[in-house]
Amino acid sequence: MSDKFLLTDVDDVILDWFPAFRAFCEHKLNVSLTERATQYSMQEWLKISPEEIRSLIDEFDREEESFGQLKSMREADVYLPKFHADGYKIIAITASSTRPKSMQRRRDNLVREFGDIFTEIHCVDKAENKREYLKMYPSSIWAEDKIYNSQMGYDLGHTGVVMRQLSNIEHEHEYPNLVWVDSWEQIYKLVNKI
C-alpha cells in the first residue's frame, strides 16, 4: 500500500495566528483594535502603510514569543489526529520564518497543540515559493487559506482545499476547481468520500 499524505498550511488553517498578532499590534502600536476587520484589509485595519504592515508581520513571526503559543482552530486539534490514526503522513508547509528560533517555536507549538503527528514541518521564508515543497509529495489533499498557493498545489496535481477566510471568500466563485471548506470536519468527510 502506498503512503497517504495530507499537506497543510499552518497559520489561519490549523493555528489561529490572528488573535496573537492583534495583541502584538495593540502593544507595539499602542492602539485598541477591533477583533477582526469586517473586510480583510490590514492597511485599513491598522491604518499604516503596506511596508509597515510587512515589517510588523515579519517581526511577529521572527521574534515574538507569542508566535510560538498559537491555539488550534477549526477543529484541527480533533481531525488532524484522526488523519494520523488513519495512517496519513501529515506534512506542514508554513511560510513564516526560517530563523532557527522561530522555526523551533513553530515546531514546538505544533507538537504542543496536536501531538507528535507531523512527518515533516517545512518552514518557508515569506518571500519563498511553496512550489518546491509541494512538488516533493504525490497527489494529496493540500489545505491552504491563500488562493494562489491552493491553485499552485492544484496545478501540481494535488486536491486544492481552501479554508474560507475574510481574505478569500469574495473570490470563491472564480475558482470552482478548488474545494472550499469552513472546518477540518469538512476536510475529513471529503477525504473519506474520495
Secondary-structure topology with pairs:
Blueprint: E1 4-8, H1 17-29, H2 42-46, H3 50-63, H4 76-85, E2 88-95, H5 100-114, E3 118-124, H6 131-134, E4 141-144, H7 147-155, E5 159-163, E6 179-181, H8 184-193
Parallel strand pairs: 1-2, 1-4, 2-3, 4-5, 5-6
How would you portray this structure in words?
41% of the residues lie in helices and 16% in strands. It has 194 residues and is of the alpha/beta class. It folds into two domains: 4-16 and 71-193, Rossmann fold (3-Layer(aba) Sandwich); 17-69, no CATH class. Strand 2, helix 5 (100-114) and strand 3 form a beta-alpha-beta unit. The chain is globular and about 50 Å long.
Number of helices: 8
Mean pLDDT across residues: 91
Q: Tell me how many strands there are.
A: 6
Distance between the termini: 16 Å
State the CATH architecture of the largest domain: 3-Layer(aba) Sandwich
The CATH topology of the largest domain comes to: Rossmann fold
Q: Provide the helix percentage.
A: 40-55%
Q: Provide the β-strand percentage band.
A: 15-25%
The overall number of domains is 2
Order of helices and strands: EHHHHEHEHEHEEH
Structural class: alpha/beta
Main-sheet strand order equals 3-2-1-4-5-6
Instruction: State the low-pLDDT regions, or none.
Output: none
Question: Gist?
Answer:
This protein has 194 residues and is an alpha/beta fold. It has helices at residues 17-29, 42-46, 50-63, 76-85, 100-114, 131-134, 147-155, 184-193, and strands at residues 4-8, 88-95, 118-124, 141-144, 159-163, 179-181.
